[in-house]
Amino acid sequence: MVVPFDHGARRDGAQTLGRGLRIASLIMQAGQGGLGLSDVVEATGLNKSTTHRLLLELVGAGLLSRDEQRRYRLGPLAYEMGLVSSYRYDVRPLCETSLDRIACSTGDTVFLGKRCGASSVCIDHRIGAEVRPPIVPPKGRVHPLGVGSMGMAVLSQLSDEQVTVINAANRKRLEAFAGVSSAYVQEMVERTRALGFARMANHVAHGVVSLGVSINDGSGRPLLAISVATTLGRMSRSHEQSVLDALYAEALVLQESLLQRSRFPADAFAVPVTP
């Protein structure tokens, strides 16, 4: 017997898939801490039973995992998918020399980051020789956009409408950082636009200051960001200028290289419409 094609079922299936992918994206942006069921319910607006069912489906597929505290994180399938797709999307080899040069010339820790929805994720770093103890980021560090100079450099390049949407999406996440609120992030966006670079201190780590600049495409869309972090005591006015000179020089090198990125697919730097 031939079963007629059910357009309603197709819409329902697409909706379920979309919701599941949205949940997976939220958990990815939460980083190593993951999210609990109530966090996902609040972020998505879905009811508890629907959210729980979708989470269990994603865990069963291996896209998510659940620990003893019932917190959800990316699972083994997400890791395997990342490994297989990395040859098409991994920009780190292109940036290695620039990161090395900045770390060598400044003596400070250098970060390379990429926007991920309403977050920034650290994808590579170099540890400078002059800062003791060294500033070492955890691998895959994820922060709300606007926390840290790397994320602020990216956020400041977006439109006012995008900044408003991202700020609203990150409202609760910002509470984890002392002195950071949506109003403060908005204020820092304006300051960063006026300066031409991001300068943040004491939010991610006490006693640490960082400077960051974005790496844009030909239309001004931020693709990546690089930042330098050091102790407040080292960041004199002259050292700050030296750091900025190094950041601007390498950002230009990387921007020109990325504009000729024939090895990257067209969607390598695509960002979903929803944060």
Automatic annotation (TrEMBL):
Domain IclR-ED as annotated: residue spans: 77-260
Keywords: DNA-binding, Transcription, Transcription regulation
InterPro entries attached to this UniProt entry: GAF-like_dom_sf, HTH_MetabolicPath_Reg, Tscrpt_reg_IclR_C, Tscrpt_reg_IclR_N, WH-like_DNA-bd_sf, WH_DNA-bd_sf
Domain of life, per lineage: Eukaryota
Pfam families to which the protein is assigned, alphabetical: HTH_IclR, IclR_C
Residue ranges occupied by any HTH iclR-type domain in the UniProt entry: 14-76
Molecular function in Gene Ontology: DNA binding; DNA-binding transcription factor activity
Transcription regulation as UniProt keyword: yes
A single BP term in Gene Ontology: negative regulation of DNA-templated transcription
Ribonucleoprotein keyword on record: no
Protein's UniProt name: IclR family transcriptional regulator
Species of the source: Gibberella intermedia (Bulb rot disease fungus)
Organism placement in taxonomy: Eukaryota, Fungi, Dikarya, Ascomycota, Pezizomycotina
